Amino acid sequence: MGTTMTRNSLYNAPFFQEMMDTTANLYRLGWDERNGGNISYLLREDELIPYLDVHHVLRTVPMSFDASALSGKYFIVTGSGKYFKNVKRDPAENLGIIRIANDGNSYEILWGFENGGVATSELPTHLMNHMQRLAVDKNHRVIMHCHATHLLAMTFTHSLKEEDFTKTLWEMCTECIVVFPDGIGVIPWIIPGTNEIGEATAEKMKDVRLVLWPHHGVFGAGQSMDEVFGLIETAEKAAQVYTVVCAQGGKKQTITDQQLQDLADAFHVVPREGILNL
């Protein structure tokens, strides 16, 4: 199955197992239908060396923007046009390990993307957002994009004003303000796979870790695979509760602004300004 390894089996590496488990879970939940969605995971060289010859470059692929700020950085990334449901069956066909080249305008494939595959078409957006999150969080490592069903649906029926969207999600589940006190960002509808959508998302990522792409999906960022998956999972659960509440006739009561502030105080988080009216 996949590329033959001469060192310790790459398939046993913790980061590799995380990638396979997460893509399987996202597909199982219906958030990454067909070839929808993508993940990139920033890796340290010392994590790779036991499993991979980092000096052996299989191919070099040009990029349409300057990622010089990430030169020499390693990522495990999902492939363009690849289905998450197939990752566990054939990781080497559907995943790749890349290094951003010294010129910043290309990436080197060190493993995977067999049979001529390349990284996700959203790679520019991922790299722009890795750069942005690393500027505000030195421990940042993961960018995840998926089509979480109820969040996607809410973008058709709910105000897209960030403060309104955030407030609604906070009110739906007690844990929400604790998990994402920074709230949720929202960009305009933009064609995916373009530098424009990457730049707009990265601008929001200065202040938040979760950005909605209206009528498309959601982009999440964090320090670990579990953190980002849990961030999206929590927001999606809140969106699902909102959907059920609307179907049941709308709110009759809710968590008050004072209660939300009390929650934030109890868990030592600072809610995004401009949302609670106290």
Radius of gyration: 19 Å
Count structural domains.
2
Task: Please tally the β strands and state the result.
Answer: 9
Q: Please tell me the CATH architecture of the largest domain by its name.
A: 3-Layer(aba) Sandwich
- Gap from first CA to last CA: 58 Å
**The CATH homology group name of the largest domain:** Class II aldolase/adducin N-terminal domain
**Which strand-content bin applies to the residues?**
15-25%
Poorly predicted runs are 1-6
SS-derived structural category? alpha+beta
Mean pLDDT: 95
Note the total helix count.
Answer: 10
Describe the secondary structure blueprint for this structure.
Blueprint: H1 14-28, E1 38-43, H2 45-48, E2 59-62, E3 74-78, H3 91-94, E4 95-100, E5 106-112, H4 123-136, E6 142-146, H5 149-157, H6 162-172, H7 176-179, E7 185-186, H8 195-204, E8 210-213, E9 217-222, H9 225-247, H10 257-266
Parallel strand pairs: 7-8
Antiparallel strand pairs: 1-3, 1-6, 2-5, 3-4, 4-5, 6-9, 8-9
Helix pairs in contact: 4-8, 5-9, 6-9
Task: Please tell me about this protein's structure.
It is built from ten helices and nine strands. The protein is elongated, with a radius of gyration of 19 Å. It is an alpha+beta fold. It has two domains: about 1-120, Class II aldolase/adducin N-terminal domain (L-fuculose-1-phosphate Aldolase), CATH 3.40.225; about 120-278, L-fuculose-1-phosphate Aldolase, CATH 3.40.225.
